[in-house]
Structures are given as C-alpha cells and as structure tokens.
C-alpha cells in the first residue's frame, strides 16, 4: 500500500495523462489540474462554443487503495488508471454533458462549479 500523498500524486499524473491522450476528454479543454487538501481539482473551459464556462470540478481522493472512496471507482484489478478514469475524468464528462439543461447562475463571476447529481 502506498501512502496517501503518493497515491494522490499517482492519480493526479494519471488524470493528466488521460486528458492528454483522450480526444473526448480533451474537448473539455482542461486547464489547471491539481490536488488541494485531499481533493482533486480540475478547471476546464468546456466544449468549444459553450460560453457558460469556465467550469470546475472537485472530488475527494481516496486515502488508500481499498478504502470506501477507492472502492467506488476501482477494484483490486483496476488500479490507479481506473480510479483516475472513472473517479475523475468520466465523472466530469457526465456532469458536464448533463449540465446543458442548466443555466449558469445569474451574476456568477469566475468558475462555475457544477455539482454532481446524486
């Protein structure tokens, strides 16, 4: 088992790789991707011609492989790549794609943090 800082760094690196390698993920036009206080934070512009942005997403990172947060998006066989893909990138894509029926809150300045519908 890795400590949480190593795990967070690994997930961060994998999220960046997925955004770089996936044509679909790149269409979100990601900006800054970082780890802040045990959360992964992704800022992105959204699809071209979507003037509602900029957007942001923030998700709690697992403290260890096998904890409850880890188990929500990966398993013992999936590893860091699966967690980064399903726990971050695909979640952002789903949240963003379902946001088209939402209107940017009036008067909102800066980043629109679209919440996940659960």
Walkthrough of the structure:
20% of the residues are buried. The protein is of the alpha+beta class. It is built from 4 helices and 4 strands, in the order H-H-E-E-E-H-H-E. Helix 1 (4-21) crosses helix 4 (79-97). The radius of gyration is 14 Å and the shape is globular. It has a 4-stranded mixed beta sheet with strand order 1-2-3-4, with helices on one face.
How is the topology of this model organized?
Elements: H1 4-21, H2 23-26, E1 30-36, E2 39-44, E3 55-60, H3 68-73, H4 79-97, E4 112-113
Parallel strand pairs: 3-4
Antiparallel strand pairs: 1-2, 2-3
Helix pairs in contact: 1-4
Tags for this entry?
alpha+beta, 118 residues, four-stranded mixed beta sheet
Strand content: 15-25%
The largest sheet, given as strand count, sense and whether it forms a barrel, is:
4 strands, mixed
Write down the secondary-structure element order.
HHEEEHHE
| β-strand number | 4
Helix percent reads 25-40%
Cα end-to-end separation: 30 Å
Q: Please tell me what the overall shape is.
A: globular
- Can you count the helices? 4
Strand order of the largest sheet: 1-2-3-4
Low-confidence stretches: none
Mean pLDDT: 91
Based on secondary structure, the structural category is: alpha+beta
Radius of gyration: 14 Å
């Amino acid at each position: 088992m890795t400590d949480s800082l190593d795990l967070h760094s690994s997930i961060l690196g994998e999220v960046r790789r997925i955004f770089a390698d996936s044509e679909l993920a790149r269409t979100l036009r990601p900006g800054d991707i970082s780890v802040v206080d045990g959360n992964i934070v992704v800022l992105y512009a959204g699809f071209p011609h979507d003037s509602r942005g900029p957007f942001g997403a923030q998700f709690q990172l697992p403290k260890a492989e096998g904890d409850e947060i880890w188990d929500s998006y990966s398993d013992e066989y999936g590893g860091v790549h699966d967690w980064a893909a399903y726990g971050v990138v695909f979640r952002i894509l789903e949240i963003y794609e379902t946001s088209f029926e939402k209107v940017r809150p009036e008067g909102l300045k800066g980043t629109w943090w679209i919440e996940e519908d659960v």
